[in-house]
UniProtKB/TrEMBL annotation:
Belongs to the glutamyl-tRNA reductase family. Pathway: Porphyrin-containing compound metabolism; protoporphyrin-IX biosynthesis; 5-aminolevulinate from L-glutamyl-tRNA(Glu): step 1/2. It comes from Staphylococcus marylandisciuri. PROSITE patterns: GLUTR. Residues 325-419 form the Tetrapyrrole biosynthesis glutamyl-tRNA reductase dimerisation domain. Possesses an unusual extended V-shaped dimeric structure with each monomer consisting of three distinct domains arranged along a curved 'spinal' alpha-helix. The N-terminal catalytic domain specifically recognizes the glutamate moiety of the substrate. The second domain is the NADPH-binding domain, and the third C-terminal domain is responsible for dimerization. This is Glutamyl-tRNA reductase. The gene is hemA. It comes from the Bacteria.
């Protein structure tokens, strides 16, 4: 069995290409089932987000497994296999496990350490599990990856520091005011950066928000989308008199908020402080406003310093998380290796307990007058002898699981003790059992 991860992400393809190979949400389930029926594919999970499309499979062969996944993607999106090869990364074995762990914990994201991908990975796994396209290997690996990512985020501050300008703008407001849930905010502009700032304000618990734009229709479109208020630039001076936080991001050629405007606003203000955050380039807010009492103006350079410092903090945390990944890979490999050992240990114990049971039967025939207490004492001591005798062989069997020649040595182990272990039930047997179960369900549905 071989783990393969095929990834189309922000490093391998630009956004236009990534859009072409993104699965629609209502197509993920059928796509998982379609891939699962493909030759060589024993288990599979499909992850599709705005920044990446990834397919994880357990395959019986590396080359055929990789090819059939690439062919599946090409067919699904109406492309050539070579097109998929040109925009994808292929990871196999330990590299695939490493990739899954890094993606799930946010170390492979455009925004380092973001936590949204954890939920997306969990959802992708649950969908595949519900469609029965995962089995022994992936049921263990994805639970391990999700648990690792949650623990990594909880034990580090990787996701606590803002690393986008729009998010940093809101974080700055929180640093100044503390709790900003009851503050009045104004978003100047109705473009992409304005919407990101709006979303970050809403995420921080702010509900009293007004979107202001030169064109009222655009302000209303953005405002109605997020259930906040809208107004025109002409109303800005009146709104500023009541506001606490202003985040401005327009494409205006001149200053939208001037010193003269703020001098007039300051004379009518009732609130203590007004924080102006200018994330536009060129700037929307005229420099020098800081000279006005209780009005504080920050531009994109001020925020960039905060972003850079936070990014360094995230990088330190990310490096700490990355150092834990080799241990996770080793743990996964040890678990996989034990899949072949467990049936051998089970067979050894079953043979030993059969001998003990037969011995007790013999004792009962030869010593029929034993009391129940005497029989229990003899049974307990014979089991104790067996457990002590099995301790070292079981330890040796477990160590064989990590040996390069584990299959040969486990076979010799079975010959020595004259036992025959059942085959472990990873991918191939899982797939066969699921296929048989699905076939049975189809037959019942026709009856």
């Amino acid at each position: 069995m071989h783990l393969i991860a095929i990834s189309i992400n922000h490093r391998t393809a630009d956004v236009a290409l990534r859009e072409k190979v993104a699965f629609k949400e209502d197509a993920i389930r059928s796509a998982n089932l379609d891939l699962f029926e493909t030759k060589s594919i024993l288990e599979n999970v499909i992850l599709s987000t705005c920044n990446r499309t990834e397919v994880y499979v357990v395959a019986d062969q590396i080359h055929t497994g990789r090819y059939y996944v690439q062919r599946f993607l090409a067919r699904h999106f109406g492309l050539e296999v070579d097109d998929i090869k040109a925009i994808s990364e292929v990871k196999v074995g330990d590299e695939a496990v490493n990739h899954i762990l890094r993606v799930t914990s946010g170390l492979d994201s455009i925004v380092l350490g973001e936590t949204q991908i954890l939920g997306q990975m969990r959802k992708a796994f649950f969908i595949a599990q519900e469609e029965d396209t995962t089995g022994t290997i992936f049921n263990h690996l994805f639970k391990q990856a999700i648990t690792f990512a949650k623990k990594a985020h909880n034990e580090s501050d990787i996701a606590d520091n803002a690393v986008s300008v729009s998010y940093a703008a809101v974080e700055l407001g929180k640093k100044i005011f503390g709790n900003i849930e009851n503050k009045k905010a104004i978003i100047v502009g109705a473009g992409e950066m304005s919407e990101l700032s709006l979303l970050n304000l809403i995420g921080a618990g702010v509900s009293n928000i007004t979107v202001v734009n030169r064109t009222l229709a655009k302000a209303e479109t953005l405002a109605s989308k997020h259930n906040v208020s809208a107004d025109t630039l002409n109303s800005l001076p009146n709104l500023l008199a009541e506001a606490d936080i202003v985040i401005s991001s327009t494409s205006a050629n001149g200053y939208v908020i001037t010193n003269e405007m703020m001098k007039q606003v300051a004379s009518h203000r009732k609130n203590d402080s007004l924080v102006l955050i200018d994330i536009a380039v060129p700037r929307d807010i005229e420099p020098g406003i800081n000279a006005i009492s209780d009005i504080f103006n920050y531009d994109v350079d001020d925020l960039q310093g905060l972003v850079d410092a936070n990014l360094r903090e995230r990088q330190v945390a990310a490096e700490s998380i990355a150092q834990q990944i080799p241990n996770e890979i080793n743990a996964h490999n040890e678990w996989v290796n034990m899949l072949g050992v467990v049936p051998v240990i089970r067979a050894l114990r079953e043979k030993a307990m059969t001998i003990q049971s037969e011995t007790m039967d013999s004792i009962d025939r030869k010593l029929p007058n034993l009391s129940e207490r005497e029989r229990k004492v003899i049974s307990k001591h014979t089991k104790s002898i067996i457990n002590q005798m099995l301790k070292d062989p079981i330890k040796q069997a477990k160590e064989l699981g990590n040996d390069r020649k584990s299959s040969e040595k486990l076979e010799l182990f079975q010959n020595i003790f004259d036992i025959e272990a059942e085959e472990p039930i990873p991918a191939k047997q899982d797939k066969l059992k699921r296929s048989q179960r699905n076939l049975s369900a189809q037959i019942l549905s026709f009856e």
